[in-house]
Amino acid sequence: MELDLDIVPDIRLSPRRAEALVRIACEAITNAAKHSGASRVTLSLERDNSLVRMRVADHGCGFDTTLPRDGFGLIAMRERVHSVGGELSIKSAPGRGSEVNVAI
């Protein structure tokens, strides 16, 4: 799997928020590698006024976000982002890939 990075330089976060963002990115990329069947994943990181936004996206098999999932990956990402006062959204549909968006 290829990983495309689009990262704006000089983004500063507290150590706690930076760790949360790194761990969420790792989980999202790992999920894509294990489950999506995609050959490429894109991670983008940008500053949006006082927020830092991260997007991890693939064009793999996708999944139905309304169905319960085995495992704790998605739950862990939600708990981690909420622990630092951020927001997380996951967009996916069968056959349409997946997108994880984080704002901290």
* Number of self-contained structural domains: 1
Largest sheet: 5 strands, mixed
Poorly predicted regions:
none
Look at the structure and give the CATH class: Alpha Beta
CATH topology: Heat Shock Protein 90
CATH architecture: 2-Layer Sandwich
| Class per helix and strand makeup | alpha+beta
- What distance lies between the first and last C-alpha atoms, to the nearest angstrom? 27 Å
Q: Estimate percent helicity.
A: 25-40%
- Summed over residues and divided by their number, the pLDDT gives a mean of 94
Q: DSSP strand (E) fraction?
A: 25-35%
The DSSP helix count reads: 2
CATH superfamily: Histidine kinase-like ATPase, C-terminal domain
- Count the strands? 5
* H and E string: EHEEHEE
Gross morphology: globular
Secondary structure elements and their pairing?
Blueprint: E1 2-7, H1 15-36, E2 40-48, E3 51-58, H2 73-83, E4 87-92, E5 98-103
Parallel strand pairs: 1-2
Antiparallel strand pairs: 2-3, 3-5, 4-5
Describe what you observe in this structure.
By secondary structure, this protein is an alpha+beta fold. The protein is built from 2 helices and 5 strands, in the order βαββαββ. Strands 1-2-3-5-4 form a 5-stranded mixed β-sheet, with helices on one face.
List descriptors.
104 residues; alpha+beta; Heat Shock Protein 90; five-stranded mixed β-sheet; 5 strands; globular
Short note summarizing the structure:
The protein is α+β, with helices and mostly antiparallel strands.
